[in-house]
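Researcher: We plan to redesign the surface later, but first we want a full-length starting point. Tokens attached.
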């Protein structure tokens, strides 16, 4: 198991200039629970197809029937209902308009054609219906993994557009995931060790993993996991002498060969003036007959140590997890120096 700006306080500015009366106290915004139905209110804020707490997610994956009911600030004749599906799309099966007096009108039923996320599934009613509420029914039975909805927009025949302002749902992962609020806070999404000269953002909405449960060729500085099967580890290995790129590549290749992994790609990365080596390999590990796992190693040799960023994930999930890994690497800032041989192109 990949999360905002503020409007300037214009009344305070006017008051300081003597142009306005005393400002009335404004109610504090109600925080949204991670993965709760209220995450489907407001404009979309989940830019990538990942298990993000910024979208509503049902309690269990693949459970079958689920529903999300949203309300808008005012009733309009409905031209469109735009449903932003942000993970495992294609599960919407019915969309209803909720009208005053408890009446409801079916706006659409069928097979949701949405194949990629994030994307909008757009429902266009054939007849005119006035409403300010919408219920979205889903069938998640044939989906592996969680389904998520990030936002719902109501477009009126009068040209108006409004995002949902209230929401409730059949179930929510917030029941469990809400316990992770501290882990998902912005300040917890940054790893910084000034003594070791490293600063970086956590990968997507992955949560911290226990280093004691992981094996790695060095000291684990920080570890995260997506769902217990995929991990990203930052580790450090002290060296008696500066390791040149060639020796570093041989060391990693030897470890991968021992695990029965086949190297599929070699890369060069740069963290400002520091040059790094990248290797991608897939294998079954020591068991030889286990599930195939893909690893992406990025090793940064410095004069007194080597920093390693390591993604390990099931082969079938590599493409999606690699995008999260690459975004994390883009946030990395490393201090330190390399010898001319470590910086040399090989």
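Model: Full-length starting sequence:
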């Amino acid at each position: 198991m990949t999360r905002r700006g503020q409007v300037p306080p214009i009344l305070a500015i006017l008051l300081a200039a003597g142009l306005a009366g005393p400002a009335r106290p404004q109610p504090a915004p109600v925080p949204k629970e991670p993965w709760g139905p209220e995450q489907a209110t407001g404009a979309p804020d989940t830019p990538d197809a990942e298990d993000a707490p910024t979208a509503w997610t049902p309690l269990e994956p693949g459970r079958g029937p689920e529903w999300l009911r949203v309300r808008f600030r005012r009733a309009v004749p409905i031209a469109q209902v735009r449903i932003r599906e942000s993970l495992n799309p294609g599960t919407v099966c019915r969309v209803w308009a909720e009208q005053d007096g408890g009446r409801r009108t079916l706006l659409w039923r069928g097979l949701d054609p949405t194949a990629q996320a994030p994307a909008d599934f757009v429902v266009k009613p054939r007849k005119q219906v006035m409403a300010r509420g919408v219920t979205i029914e889903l069938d998640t039975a044939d989906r592996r993994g969680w389904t998520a909805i990030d936002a719902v927009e109501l477009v009126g025949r009068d040209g108006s557009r409004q995002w949902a302002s209230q929401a409730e749902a059949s179930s929510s992962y917030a029941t469990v995931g809400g316990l992770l609020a501290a882990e998902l806070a912005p300040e917890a999404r940054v790893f910084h060790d000034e003594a070791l000269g490293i600063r970086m953002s956590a990968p997507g909405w992955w949560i911290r993993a226990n280093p004691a449960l992981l094996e790695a060729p060095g000291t684990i500085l920080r570890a995260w996991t997506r769902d217990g099967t995929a991990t990203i580890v930052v580790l450090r290995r002290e060296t008696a002498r500066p390791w040149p790129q060639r020796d570093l590549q041989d060391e990693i290749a030897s470890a991968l060969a021992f695990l029965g992994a086949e190297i599929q790609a070699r890369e060069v990365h740069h963290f400002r003036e520091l040059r790094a080596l990248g290797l991608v390999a897939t294998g079954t590990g020591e068991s030889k007959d286990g599930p195939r796992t893909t690893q992406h190693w990025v090793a940064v040799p410095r004069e007194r140590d080597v920093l390693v960023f390591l993604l390990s994930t099931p082969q079938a999930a590599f493409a999606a997890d690699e995008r999260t890994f690459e975004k994390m690497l883009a946030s990395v800032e490393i201090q330190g120096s390399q010898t001319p041989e470590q910086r040399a192109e090989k």
